[in-house]
Hints:
Elements: E1 3-8, H1 12-24, E2 27-33, H2 38-46, E3 47-48, E4 52-53, E5 58-61, E6 64-67, E7 70-75
Parallel strand pairs: 1-2, 2-7
Antiparallel strand pairs: 3-4, 5-6, 6-7
Amino acid sequence: MAIKVGINGFGRIGRLVFRRCKELGGVDFVGINDLTDAKTLAHLLKYDSVHGKYNGTIEVDGNDIIVDGDRIKISAERDPANLNWGDLG
């Protein structure tokens, strides 16, 4: 059974944690909160200047990104206290 995880902040560290967890498995990402739009987040995840290109598939569908077939909701809430992670699973 996978652990469900939401990430608040998808900067350098958030993306590296995401990549590593995808490699190891056992983590189901249900949401990412970042002020950047989904298209840019997908691009930054796919192309990393140090670690290279992400080997899986990354697509954008509205405000969601789909990574290796898994849909991840993207939100842009400035105050993390206003996030309702429970609604995501």
